[in-house]
Specification:
Layout lengths: L9 H17 L4 H4 L12 E8 L10 H4 L6 E13 L2 E14 L4 E16 L2 E13 L3 H12 L13 E16 L3 E11 L6 E12 L7 E15 L12 E13 L2 E9 L7 E9 L16
Antiparallel strand pairs: 1-2, 1-12, 2-3, 3-4, 4-5, 5-6, 6-7, 7-8, 8-9, 9-10, 10-11, 11-12
Length: 304
């Protein structure tokens, strides 16, 4: 593959996205995907999700030093909170993302916060998503969170001034998922999404494949699902303050979900190049009132 292949012009980007969309609507899917069984039932309870990830493995002596300490990509910590409800195949959710950014080399910090309202509509061939929200970078308490944690664990406090640049803007999100394979205990999906973040954060295109293996019925406790994701990220309109955080590149990850008790699910995951950088991330996700076929996918674990 020639150098710079994915660093294309605007015209080439349009052609790439058009090709992806064409694939979504022309690839044949299994008969099960187009039947009535593919439309999920009404969920009369709200599902809650809380997630956290970092570029260091949280337990020092589990897999050894070579795994737990990643190269610092300035993402000190990232958090996700979501509340959603599924009604006749349409999933509505309110999402909140927060990330603490510290650039030790250039000696500044900033916090990134995103609030988004998302609608995901189920279709016989898969689903599509649209979202609208607000994105901003400023002092949102990240320094207090970080140094409180450092105080509890005996780590030296990190005193960095907040970045003089702050901005708030509109976020628009579109996504689409094409079911390539649907079976009672596994599935394969082709996904693509675009996020416009008003140049507060870099805008991006993302596309990839996601393999899911899950129990047909939720167990009382035990492993409920396993997912693999591999795809490609391409950013544009990147401000210089965030160039050390984001880059174009391939991304991949794996997540294992475990039912603790009565629809309370804990998932642990690891990703590589989550932001397009040569960098691993490790995290966990807690889910209440969960359905293992409807848990947050790996393609969703990133800034929207």
């Amino acid at each position: 593959m020639p150098p710079g292949f994915f660093h294309s012009t605007a015209d080439k980007k349009i052609h790439i996205i058009a090709t992806i969309l064409l694939i979504f609507f022309t690839v044949n899917i299994s008969p099960a995907a187009s039947g009535e069984n593919s439309i999920p039932p009404v969920h009369d309870t709200v599902q809650y999700h809380f997630g956290y990830w970092n570029d260091n493995f949280p337990v020092d002596n589990v897999f050894g030093k070579s795994m737990n300490h990643g190269r610092d990509d300035n993402v000190t910590a990232a958090f996700l909170a979501q509340a959603g409800m599924d009604i006749h195949g349409t999933y509505f959710s309110l999402d909140f993302f927060d990330s603490i950014i510290t650039n030790k080399t250039r000696e500044y910090r900033t916090d990134i916060a995103i609030m988004r309202l998302l609608m995901r509509q189920k279709q016989s061939w898969g689903s599509y998503s649209v979202g609208i929200g607000i994105v901003g970078n400023d002092n949102f308490g990240g320094e207090t969170i970080q140094n409180s944690y450092h105080s509890l664990t005996g780590i030296k406090k990190l005193d960095l001034p907040y970045l003089g640049y702050s901005k708030t803007g509109l976020l628009l999100f579109t996504g689409i998922k094409k079911n390539l394979v649907i079976e009672p205990t596994y599935g394969l999906d082709l996904t693509a999404s675009h996020s416009y973040r008003n140049e507060v954060l870099p805008n991006y295109y993302k596309a990839g494949l996601e393999l899911s293996v899950f129990r047909e019925k939720l167990p009382h406790h035990g492993i409920s699902a396993f997912r693999l994701y591999s795809g490609y990220l391409e950013y544009y309109s990147m401000k210089r303050y965030f160039r050390s955080m984001f880059d174009n590149g391939f991304t991949a990850g794996a997540i294992v979900s475990y039912i603790i008790f009565s629809k309370v699910q804990l998932s642990v995951f690891s990703t590589t190049n989550q932001y397009g950088l040569e960098q691993p991330h490790f995290g966990f996700l807690m889910e209440w009132n969960c359905d293992n076929k409807r848990s947050i996918a790996l393609s969703d674990i990133s800034f929207p």
